[in-house]
Amino acid sequence: VQLQASGGGSVQAGGSLRLSCAASGRAFTNYPMGWFRQAPGKEREFVSSLIWASGRTYFADSVKGRFTVSGDNAKNTIYLQMNRLSPEDTAVYYCAAVVKPSYVSAFYYFSKETSYNVWGQGTEVTVSS
After folding, report:
1. Which helix (H) or strand (E) holds 65?
2. Span 44-68, mean pLDDT?
3. Quick check: 78 and 95 in contact, CB under 8 A?
4. How far, in Å, CA of 64 to CA of 46, rounded?
5. What pLDDT was estimated at residue 123?
6. Three-state SS for 4?
7. How many helices (H) does the chain have, and how many strands (E)?
8. Residue 15: strand, helix, or coil
C-alpha cells in the first residue's frame, strides 16, 4: 500500500503547478484522500481533501479559490491544481489517505493529520517572488 506524490517544482509567484498522488496496492478510491504541506520551520498543515464516495472536497482558507482537487478513478490518482501561487505556498506537499472502516464526513475530521493513516512521501514546491 503506497502513495506516490509528484509534480513539485519551482515556479514564480502567480504561476501554477499540478501535483499528483498515485495510489498503489489497493483501490484508494474507496477512501478519502488529502493533501497537507509543511513549510520550512513550520508544522504540517491541511491543504485539501477529496471524498471519493461523495465527490465532496474541503480546502483550507489559505488556498480556497486558488487550489482545486480532483481524482481519476481509472488511474487511482488524485490531483491538486494550484493556481495563483505565492511564496507563502512554498512547502513540501504530502498526500495521505484515510484507510479506515469509517470516518466522519466533516471538515474538522479531514483537516486533522491524525485522521489519515497512510502517507506518501513529499514533493517540494518552491514559489519565488
Report:
1. none
2. 96
3. yes
4. 12
5. 98
6. strand
7. 1, 11
8. coil
Name the residue among 65, 55, 16 with its Cα closest to residue 33: 55
Q: Which three cell numbers stand for residue 77?
A: 490518482
User: Which grid coordinates belong to 103?
Assistant: 470516518
DSSP characters over 76-126: TEEEEEE-S--GGG-EEEEEEE--SS----SHHHHT-GGG--EEPPPEEEE
Q: What is the mean pLDDT of residues 78-102?
A: 96
pLDDT in tens, 13-48: 999 999 999 998 777 777 899 999 999 999 999 999
If residue 13 lies in a helix (H) or strand (E), which one and from where to where? Answer: none
- Residue 52, pLDDT above cutoff 90: no
pLDDT for the residue numbered 29 = 73
How far, in Å, CA of 24 to CA of 11, rounded?
29
Q: Which three cell numbers stand for residue 79?
A: 490531483
